[in-house]
Specification:
Length: 377
């Protein structure tokens, strides 16, 4: 069986490594073949961007050579897909190669899309790329006081990021001795401060305690950079001195342009993880249109399910398990406190009071990520 994995992020990497171990004898005998196509020779630790933006990580800590993370037997090629030919079970790559498959997994990820809101890209700071996170850090370093507005678009990658950056900024300015000169204000598109009700019930009192104000039912309409005003679709104007945005995201352009899914999100069966209408095309991580968190842990748990199922397809001809919607997210509640949210399709999260121990667990995971990407954690 020819297994093609498109994308070398967390989901694709964990899947490839788990499959390589599960199918070691089949790879040796030629019964199975695993090919990974990526746009980069580097593997990028995206959660680290949050720390880069406030000066607590450096860019070199975010990268490893992708090949060094992969099990022997995986054919890794830096040759991104440019065209999907699903009816013929093949793809065309940037170099012009036609690569055929029996089973394909789409793990192409997502991208921020601030250009969707007039004035947002030009006037806000972001932390979803290395370049934007470094720019944000330099802007924070030079900021000496005023109203900082953190505004949120949906959908976006990492569901807890808006809360985390808000609480981390509170401690950042406190450490700089600017608490009395900086006012933090947070906006969210629905009628609470987070989409997950129990997370919102935990976060709103935290914000109240820290003096962080917020507007809900605030859907970003435009940014008037000249007058430093953020406007909502609901008719609310907010003046700012520094605007930090979690912009709405889209799937990757190759998915969107290829017609595989609106806005780059592939229609995906939420338990089987196959592309709707395709029994041999599966989807992992941010690429799905499943309405659950676009988070690293989601990709991890989906990859675990897919690895077991695809290996079973090779060995027994049929999948053996379903994905239950499991997600686990750390939530940084400042510079040295954190909590977490764990949930699935049936059970909502129930965040506990933040602790220093959970914060250090998160910091440890930043180091252990590379073991996790190998599928060993």
């Amino acid at each position: 069986m020819r297994i093609l994995i498109v994308g070398g992020g967390m989901g694709g990497t964990i899947l490839a490594n788990s499959l390589a171990r599960r199918l070691s004898s089949e790879l040796k005998s030629g019964k199975a073949r695993i090919t990974m196509l990526s746009a980069s020779e580097k593997h990028f630790y995206q959660p680290g961007l949050l720390y880069l933006a406030i000066g607590r990580m450096t860019p070199d800590e975010l990268y490893r050579d992708q090949a060094s993370l992969l099990e022997p037997g995986i054919e890794f090629q830096v040759d991104p897909v440019e065209e999907f030919m699903l009816d013929n079970n093949c793809v065309k790559t940037k170099s012009g190669k036609i690569i055929e498959y029996d089973v394909m997994v789409l793990a192409t990820g997502s991208r921020m899309f601030p250009e969707g809101v007039p004035g947002l890209a030009e006037n806000a700071e972001f932390f979803y790329t290395e370049t934007s996170a470094l720019k944000m850090f330099k802007r924070l370093q030079s900021f000496e006081g005023g109203k900082v507005v953190i505004t949120v678009g949906v959908p976006h990658k990492c569901p807890m990021a808006p809360l985390e950056i808000t609480f981390m900024l509170h401690d950042y300015f406190k450490d700089r001795g600017l608490s009395d000169k900086v006012k933090l204000h947070y906006t969210y598109p629905i009628n609470r401060v987070h989409s997950l009700e129990n997370v919102a019930k935990w976060a709103a009192p935290e914000m109240d305690h820290l003096g962080i104000t917020y507007d809900t039912f605030f859907n970003i309409k435009e940014v008037d950079g000249k007058n430093q005003i953020l406007r909502s679709e609901e008719g609310v104007d907010i003046k700012y001195d520094l605007l930090i945005a979690i912009p709405a995201h889209k799937g990757m352009e190759v998915i969107e342009k290829g017609g595989l899914g609106a806005n780059g999100w592939v229609p995906t069966n939420r338990t089987k993880l196959n592309m709707e209408g395709r029994s041999n095309v599966f989807v992992c991580g941010d690429t799905t249109n499943i309405p659950i968190s676009k988070a690293g842990s989601t990709a991890h748990f989906e990859a675990d399910t897919l690895a077991e199922n695809i290996a079973a397809m090779v060995k027994m001809g049929t999948p053996v398990r379903e994905y239950d919607g499991k997600v686990f997210c750390f939530i940084e509640a400042g510079k040295d406190r954190a909590t977490y949210a764990m949930f699935n399709y049936l059970n909502p999260p129930d965040p506990k009071a933040p602790t220093k121990a959970m914060h250090w667990f998160k910091i440890a995971y930043n180091k252990l990520y590379w073991i996790s990407a190998r599928g060993l954690l």
